[in-house]
């Protein structure tokens, strides 16, 4: 298995002509996971060797514009490049509480209809992740979306024992989110590969067996 990390943007506040704002892609076995999606991310994807259509998961660290304002545009571009497929699995999007409402309202107001399904999984922050005066409770924003017929995804709370949020747990990887302190609630993401059995070339071991026996025979 190979993992490849591509920095699509490392700037902050706004994109520049030579340096885009925050976005990072992790490619694994033909799939692409995107971490943050600032304005201009889809342009950076076009300039890279990555294929945006391979994106299956998107992770948003926090709801400052320079980390997620590019998301609605990217989703619409992916839709323009797609064909209707009822069997296509949804794009999983993970981010702070309020992200689902932002995506739904943006697509609704712009009359944008995606040709592929998406599901937003929201992380519930705690009040100690930002200054008290900056904390806002967005738990009531999902009322309109609940009646829209869109798949709702999970509401993920902090595991007090692990002190993390479990996002993905498949045969190969575990992805967890961790609390970060910022001006607004923020999260870091950890991608952990599960232990897997190594592969032994039995024939090669037999061929070199006599070599090891020669040097390591007990005296």
Automatic annotation (TrEMBL):
Transmembrane segments: none annotated. One of its GO terms (cellular component) is nucleus. PANTHER family: ZINC PHOSPHODIESTERASE ELAC PROTEIN 1. The lineage of its organism: Eukaryota, Metazoa, Chordata, Craniata, Vertebrata. This is ElaC ribonuclease Z 1. GO terms for molecular function: 3'-tRNA processing endoribonuclease activity. Pfam families: Anti-Pycsar_Apyc1. Signal peptide: none annotated. InterPro entries: RibonucZ/Hydroxyglut_hydro (IPR036866).
